[in-house]
Fold:
Amino acid sequence: MKPQWQQLINRETKQSYFKDLVTEVAKQRSSEISIYPTENDVFNAFNHVDLADIKIVILGQDPYHGKDQAHGLAFSVQEGIKVPPSLVNMYKELSTDIKGFKAPKHGCLTPWAEQGVLLLNTVLTVQQGNAHSHAKLGWEIFTEQVINELNEHNDGCVFILWGAHAHKKGKNINQDKHLVLAGPHPSPLSAYRGFYGCQHFSQANAWLVKHEMNPIDWQLPAMASSNK
Structure:
């Protein structure tokens, strides 16, 4: 894990809420309940680029709850897993927003993370087949601290907030320093309400260029295995 993130996590692990959270998740893992992602992937979002170098934050809710889907990056799925509907809709928006974008056959978004896109869920674990099952265990407190740290100690990044849940998380972000892009969630239940045509990907890149940062190459490799 990158040093600044490690420092934050070390600080939070000393808090009573975090101790209770870890205890409860470990208790469930030791039972017959399957918890996703695997223990090694829970903090995967913090393994690629450190806090000061984050360019874009895309905020999700909780991990995919199907077998082998979640691997610690919001909206991303493991290699060989069918692309979920929300990500299909993200690819549709990218194809109209980013010139030349072609949707890959896979849903592994690791190349985005490696360029400085923090794919952060507000809740980092979930029970198999039980969406939102780990909401209110304490993850929201932890991810609120992550957002606060970025708000305070990152020189400027783009926060992409989709859906009412994410919008609430962005209410205290300093918009003099950061860009906040808010819109409907890409879920099939809400994408038609304005997610399509939001142009958040190109807007984010334009802001990065304006602030003398390299834009994100949103195009993903044709095969997920070429990420390795």
